[in-house]
Design brief:
By secondary structure, the chain is of the alpha+beta class. Helix 2 links the parallel strand 1 and strand 2. The longest helix is centred in the middle third of the chain and has 10 residues. The chain has three helices and two strands; from the N terminus they run H-E-H-E-H.
Length: 71
């Protein structure tokens, strides 16, 4: 599920995230600039398994991994 960094300051947006805070969450962005900030916000919200994707979405694509676009 996509949640922009700006939405993580919004309690309603955080409530839209999985209620099981032990589930792994991957944090990514276009180039990975704000990954650590977003991951820290999720950890502060109680998520236990937050991981960042090195290089963001561009790094993911460069590694030849699949990317889906929502409709």
């Amino acid at each position: 599920r996509h949640a922009p960094l700006s939405a993580l300051d919004n309690a309603a947006a955080v409530k839209a995230l999985p209620t099981n805070k032990a589930l792994p969450l991957l944090v990514t962005g276009a180039r990975g600039v704000n990954l650590n900030r977003a991951a820290g916000m999720l950890r502060q919200a109680g998520y236990q398994s937050v991981r960042t994707v090195m290089g963001g979405t561009e790094g993911w694509r460069a590694a030849g991994l699949p990317v889906e676009r929502s409709a």
